[in-house]
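Subject: Interface between my chains keeps coming out wrong

I've been trying for a while to get a sensible model of this assembly. When I model each chain on its own everything looks fine, but I need the whole thing in one frame so I can look at the contacts. Pasting all components below, labels as-is. Any help appreciated, I'm running out of ideas.
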Amino acid sequence: MRDKNNPIGVFDSGIGGLTVVKQLIRFLPNENIVYFGDTARVPYGTKSTSTIEKFSVENALFLLRFKVKCIVVACNTSSSIALPLLKDSFKVPVIGVIEPGAREALSATRKSKIGIIGTKATILSKAYEIQLRRLVKAEFLEKQKGLKIVSQSCPLFVPLAEEGWLNDLVTKEVAKRYLDIFKHKNIDTLILGCTHYPLLKNVISSVLGSDVRLVDSAKQCAIEAQRVLYAEGLLNNDKRKGNIEFFVSDEPQKFAASGKKFLGTNINCIKRSSDV
Amino acid sequence: MRDKNNPIGVFDSGIGGLTVVKQLIRFLPNENIVYFGDTARVPYGTKSTSTIEKFSVENALFLLRFKVKCIVVACNTSSSIALPLLKDSFKVPVIGVIEPGAREALSATRKSKIGIIGTKATILSKAYEIQLRRLVKAEFLEKQKGLKIVSQSCPLFVPLAEEGWLNDLVTKEVAKRYLDIFKHKNIDTLILGCTHYPLLKNVISSVLGSDVRLVDSAKQCAIEAQRVLYAEGLLNNDKRKGNIEFFVSDEPQKFAASGKKFLGTNINCIKRSSDV
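Reply #2:
Try treating it as a single job with all components included. I did that and got this:
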């Protein structure tokens, strides 16, 4: 039985999904949230389709034990690969970050030239590309004709962000190589298709120029969750501030320390799940 | 029952342990080998002690199903963290890469000044440092007095090696930062405390100079396995070339492609284990 008071479940391969939690708190402050970060098996972006699907299903099953009323897949890689399987498998609504990100990019672009960066798995899946073309066909007909999409995987961006080299000459040199493909394509909008990439916004903008709009999915994903819960009559009417529980598969201490960067506030109570 | 004809079990967090397999084939060509690479949960070097121990025990249990007569822990991180637990838990001999690497470094150094590079978990564990001091105390008394050890974790080296940027200006710049600490310490020997690092030998040597000897544990680890099996009366007397089976936890195709770099030959039959 799904109930309005049940929590929203959110999972990510690790820590980056906290950017989505931040936006959920902003748009749905009264909702309870259970977050699961698979920090023991992170990263997902270098793994195969079948492994990403397996991990994603296990994460969803973990959240379902808390009787979550919907599942938000905050991880771009999981959203790109496993969303169809999750939607087919589970009764609760499953919300990913791809459609919200694609929607945001389409409303941002003026020249209908959109770039996408992400993990290897995300880029190989072509999930953003498929979603952009689907949305254009369904809703943005006037932009359909000239839509150009260019994709590039950036495997070193996550390790560089985790090393903390955010405004760094090495990171800028790496960004120059990865992003070179976009300079000649005249894009005006770039989808940051991985929750770590907003940490590198400064470097990315310094390479591409400030006129290229950088889009991340977190805000639109929270708005989509709000829309879905409203449509299903599942919005929490409680006037109190929602409660948030954090679970991780590796040790909680490290998550607490780096989590602050993504969530913007301290994270106090983090529990370890040894089940996943 | 352990039998001479039973295979040697080898595990690694992923692919790097194939460098150890290569040396095992060289020194023990008649032995059968079962290799397990935990490619679904790689890397280990950024994870916590308890997670590395859990994964290492699971990997060992997987190998024991093949009635392996000994277990070689080819992964530096697992060897640094989980070797005591594995040795305490299982009856078969367990051989790591730390003691062999430390031994090699001590016989290579002339000035008794040794550097160590590795993953965060390996460096934090101080496993090489403890082993070097233990060996000096037990066997190399004449070098004891002046032994100086300097350690540095290099988190970006594995992603750079996996990106294939082996002889690259970015990699050289990263190496300059990480290795700067050694330049002022006058080391003459550097332990490459991660199975990926030998791929970056050129860059590392170009930064530190060719007079710094680079030591990896693979060869000494194979010699140690030979010694242990001989002492236990478990060397395979078969005159035929040994059989090697490869198992991985993620999809086998990618392992086959990159494995060649580490093993030096093609890898044909790789099976997937979905149990770990």
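Reply #3:
Confirming on my end. The longest helix of chain A spans residues 49-64.
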